[in-house]
Amino acid sequence: MSAKTYEVRTYGCQMNVHDSERLSGLLEDAGYERAPEGADGDADVVVFNTCAVRENADNRLYGNLGRLAPMKTKRPGMQIAVGGCLAQKDRDTIVKRAPWVDVVFGTHNIGKLPVLLERARVQEEAQVEIAESLEAFPSTLPTRRESAYAAWVSISVGCNNTCTFCIVPALRGKEKDRRTGDILAEIEALVGEGVSEITLLGQNVNAYGSDIGDREAFSKLLRACGKIEGLERVRFTSPHPRDFTDDVIAAMAETPNVMPQLHMPMQSGSDPILKAMRRSYRQDRFLGIIEKVRAAMPDAAISTDIIVGFPGETEEDFEQTMHAVREARFANAFTFQYSKRPGTPAATMEGQIPKEVVQSRYERLVAVQEEISWEENKKQVGRTLDLMVAEGEGRKDGATHRLSGRAPDNRLVHFTKPDTEVRPGDVVTVEITYAAPHHLLAEGAVLNVRPTRAGDAWEKRNTEAAAKPAGVMLGLPKVGAPAPLPAATGSGCGCD
User: Fold this and answer.
1) Annotated binding-site residue? 166
2) Which of the residues in the chain have pLDDT under 50?
């Protein structure tokens, strides 16, 4: 008899992605098997890891729950669980609106999921348990990582900022830092398993140390990562300009395995709007940081988040954002039309901008940034780059007979498939021949292939998955570096 199956559906920021890997690990530790890809709710346990950022986040959740209700009726013993930020916020209403839900848990007690599922099964009633403070760092829980060669490492949870557009600090609590020794021990263990790239993760990652009273703790952590043998690439997300100090820039520039890539949320280029957002910097300070980063790392790729149409934004305010974008010359920008986040101060501010005005400004900003991204990518043509091979990042790779990988600065590169075997996690050297706004091409022959322990780890994982008994029906894991940017929700998720 095959084990019970599970499916985890993730919405929101990279913190949710990290949490979902832990939820999967917890369920597998409890004896569940991952449902095949495309199961679409056809599993014994379906878990929704939710986000509360978008205005229609609850409508999306309840719509999906509604579609599962008849499936649950036809499948005896099926259980549905809802966790994450929306569960933390709407703890009392989820079971009322969707009484077929079995478990509701919050952002602070994801480790309780297997116990709550079993309790709901035995007692035959919904279990709602929301902790008000963190019970365990996500990284200390069992995991089922989506990538064999790249991993998230949580260094802090919570956020001490009070940005008026963001509800996440209210749901994930005040910042709590993890012990440096625990972080480094986890990274060393991951490297021992074959991981060669890690992304340090926090709601406000470079504020690390505020909880332990050391303002240089984050730069020290970056330098310590540089001493871990076998760790080839270190990234982090997302920092806040307020805490981006010169010692962090120096650590990035002087630590070889810290990648020349920075995602620095700007949100707006207008000083009055930044003040209304309660962002503790102004345009000059932000552009000054960018200038210092480029002086220390000329090849660094810098990306950002921008909100268009924040309450009270005038045409002059918007033009200041356009000016800042032209000055900063971001490699790419995640641009968002402001939408009300229920429970945030901005949701009730005067001066809400008409939808058609927001749309027009958004389109103008996207057009300018698209042009800049293309111009910046064209500067890469002719360069020789080492790429870490990825899987699943080139949607047309099969048709074009190419593979895809990430450059040190995290640019996506599609390259000609070499004659020798190349696995995700291996490193190839290529010459860039063409640039598009959102990717690069290396159309010539691969100059060098370097097999890695990370590639070995990918091969081992896939060999073991293929050898599983047919009755278990495990889907092959998706492999590739953790998404470095909060593409789904970006600026609103409190990770900046």
Assistant:
1) yes
2) 1, 470-495
